[in-house]
Predict the structure.
Amino acid sequence: MRQSRLFTRTRHDAPADEVSKNAQLLIRAGFVHKEMAGAYSFLPLGLKTLNKVIGVIREEMDGIGGQEVTLTGLQDPAVWEATGRFDDEVVDVWFKTKLKNDTEIGLGFTHEEPITRMMREHLLSHKDAPKLVYQFQTKFRNETRAKSGIMRTREFIMKDLYSFAKDEEEHLKIYQQVADAYHRIFSRLGIGEDTYQTFASGGVFAKYSHEFQTVTDAGEDVIYVQKSRKLAINQEVNNDEVRADLNVTEGELEAFDASEVGNIFTLGTRFSEALGLMITGEDGEKVPVFMGSYGIGPARVMGVIVEKFSDEKGMVWPDEVAPFKVHLVGLNLEDDAVREYADGVYESLKDNGIDVLYDDRDARPGEKFADSDLMGFPYRVVVSRKTMESGAFEVVTRATGDVRKLSEEELYRDFDSVPE
Amino acid sequence: MRQSRLFTRTRHDAPADEVSKNAQLLIRAGFVHKEMAGAYSFLPLGLKTLNKVIGVIREEMDGIGGQEVTLTGLQDPAVWEATGRFDDEVVDVWFKTKLKNDTEIGLGFTHEEPITRMMREHLLSHKDAPKLVYQFQTKFRNETRAKSGIMRTREFIMKDLYSFAKDEEEHLKIYQQVADAYHRIFSRLGIGEDTYQTFASGGVFAKYSHEFQTVTDAGEDVIYVQKSRKLAINQEVNNDEVRADLNVTEGELEAFDASEVGNIFTLGTRFSEALGLMITGEDGEKVPVFMGSYGIGPARVMGVIVEKFSDEKGMVWPDEVAPFKVHLVGLNLEDDAVREYADGVYESLKDNGIDVLYDDRDARPGEKFADSDLMGFPYRVVVSRKTMESGAFEVVTRATGDVRKLSEEELYRDFDSVPE
């Protein structure tokens, strides 16, 4: 894309009321816009980034047999009353609203209840199990405070997967498959090394659930880590009993601030019993379906990536997340011959399937380099009178600052594979 | 995809409270699920269909230079108070809700106000114009009645495009570009012939706006059409003055029930003036931006397609909209040799890039054919002991019932191009 066409501008300062680093940088770079506290719109570069995160998650969910749906935001009170969760005393993050006939309805903060009810029409026998159903859908949560930028908002897209198994044994296999998929996701998104599958409190049907916690100074949680075993325990369950279960001593554990980027829960039969999701078991009797739920917030992951990798100059996007792989910065474009040549380099990069933003604006070099650093795509390539005359290109890796000299042919063909 | 893996089931009867034909068929086929009146979830086949519609619209919006964003559902009252539209007496479809601090906020039913405010940070000069910004975003509208299935719901994805021009002349060019794109969209979606760009009331800044109205018995509107000129007038403005403007007589016009699938509006400077979206004009003075807005509801289009093309056996999807192009119906699969052969045909179709749902279920042929007719993909191909022995395949076109006999090679390579 040509940067002169992009409608967003960068800005030097973040809004005064914006305290989180991720939102400050994302706003300055024109990736997001703050509508009000805890509500951010995604502008072209931000939406492209978010969609890259979503794309990785979708591939991995499809890979384990997930089937995609989209449930509604508006929530029928009846189905939540059946589980006792419509009550604001039980769930304190509801946004409620009213139909014209004065019926109070909710805005979904999660979807266990409606998806369980919906599955009653489709899941009839143990032969229909297991099934994995997921969505990327907008949740609403009436948070009292919202000051972590896009990491904790009142409205956000969540990937929520629900699993439906004929029994606990089948469920546990799915649970492990999802955990494995989550590890692949966070690894592809560039935060695998610092993301720990963390023991957390389990609820009625399981002693533990698991959170995926990414170590970052911006984290709202504290986890205790035994690094060599890649073992982590959430602060809330870091007690003698749990450490004994996990065969670890207090002295071995190191505390880190961390942000929860995913979670996986065994729900058991709590929802299927309350809502009548029964299947015919192998012996012909009706049994409740054994369920699990599994969440990832793509925008929260994006916020964590900004927090972890940014430097004093701006953001640093991992390859699979960056809205563009290459930032082609054009200089000396006031010279028609250089502009024609630079346009040609841009077209050739595109023709070779390279996702490139081309800074073809009339702007000073210093402004272009500052914007490029702020936006933080993986590679920056300058095209100018000098490159036109020498035929040599400098490729700067944003994350490391390393520079490679490449010929035009190498640039189009294989600059990824040329060592830094 | 293998139908045995799909979690949805078809059903013989629609829910008793569902009065619209589109929702009855979509529910019976497992495409959508009714959560409550005016709120439908999209299940895998329905979501795939909706995404095809969205994909066509996105391509055409990108084609005219649209840049995609996603604004929030939660709406800051301040920006709506500036235009007088937060008042329930002025706008009667608001859903309102409250933050923890008791501030009343809205759920967006459209986005002129927030997008105008947001553009203040990015659009500074006439040189920045024109810009086209669009989204596929969930609107909430508190409709008093909701009984047209997925054609009129309280929550729906809308494609809303907003244009920002330096003056009226630039605006009118964009307006025409969008109108042309809309014609291409409805043509690709299979409803071009029966969709009329229809004169409707204009508002403050233009005598007319335009609706795109598709003739269907399920339509909520009435339009008056002069067919040979492809001219149409909405009932609300079908008066002497308008007919004189358009040089048409009452006698030439034919009345049709129709459903509004899109609309295009000249907004002028109403929003830019109220919200201070000013740019530096060519002579250095500050001038308000000249705006337009342009909507399409993808689910409404989907509903109209069901209403228009369905027959007594079920739905009939046009090629660009169908969730799958081919329904491969396997028979005699209890015979391992036939199943192995049928699996091979399925894999070969996929390998040749053909989007196919393979009915590999253990079910009676009559049930499979009934489900296939109900789901309504463009082509049905039976694979069975008979086709295995003969090497000949019958391809049935759902819309016409026409049958072609093809060899296995023709099936994989070019069944589209073999005449019926």
Chain B touches chain A through 53 residues (CB under 8 Å). The first strand of chain B starts at residue 32 and ends at 36.
